[in-house]
Amino acid sequence: MSYIVSPYAVDLDGIRLVGSYGQEFVDAVVRSSPQQVLDRLDEAEELGLTPRDVMRQLLAGEPMDPEFGPTYGHALEVLCHHAGTLLDNAHWAGMRFRYFSMVEQALADIGVDFDPTELVLGGAPIELPPIDDFPSIGFVEHHRIDAMADTLNAVRLDRLTDDAIRGSVAEMREWARTCQAEGVGLVCFYY
Questions:
Q1: pLDDT tens digit string along 11-62?
Q2: pTM for this one?
């Protein structure tokens, strides 16, 4: 089985307003979300809930079921999809977790200290019920994006000999640049 990283350039201050949004915003998020994004909330059926119900729990501050942390993790992604920009991830799709260490090692081999697992293992930018499976979530605050961009901008891509890794590093560089240009943070989901 292969996995994917879904990165979003998004205003983390707006994300952190979860729990204070009204029904009108909940409805707007659900209406604007493509079906394939809402399909990630399929576990909601086990709770007898619709995706709209799950989004209302997250956004309006209704009690969340502590047994369904992954569902709320995917609900956070629905919000990021609505409020932010899904960034190019072609080189972070169809991979396994060990690929993160391969990218980290390739960067280390050319003298760059950057661990891409931090992008997906740092936890959610908001409080969610425990997630014991997927999605793994990580984020970079806006004030830390410059440091990420500086590190990745210093990488001489021509020194990376593996085409896939070169593409992955170039994408991460673009993620940081986009966040800088938009003045926002980065949230990444891995599943």
A1: 999 999 999 999 999 999 988 888 888 887 877 787 788 888 999 999 999 9
A2: 0.93
Question: Could you give the angle at the alpha carbon of 84 between the alpha carbons of 99 and 11, nearest 5°?
Answer: 100
- How many CA atoms, within 13 angstroms, populate the side-chain half-sphere of residue 90? 7
Q: How far is it, in rounded angstroms, from Cα 33 to Cα 65?
A: 23
Contact between 9 and 30 (Cβ < 8 Å): no
Question: In this structure, which topology does domain 3-190 adopt according to CATH?
Answer: Hypothetical protein yfbM fold (3.40.1760)
Domains of the chain, by residue range, sit at: 3-190
Question: Taking a C-beta distance cutoff of 8 angstroms, is the pair 175, 85 a contact?
Answer: no
Cα 156 from Cα 123, distance rounded (Å): 30
DSSP, res 44: G
Buried b (16+ CB within 10 A) or exposed e, 131-169: beeebbbbbbebeebeebbebbeebeeeebeeebbbbbb
Spatial separation of the C-alpha atoms in residues 9 and 7, rounded to whole Å: 7
100: left (phi over 0), alpha (psi -120 to 50) or beta: alpha
Size of the chain in residues: 191
Q: What are phi and psi of 190, to 5 degrees?
A: -125, 125
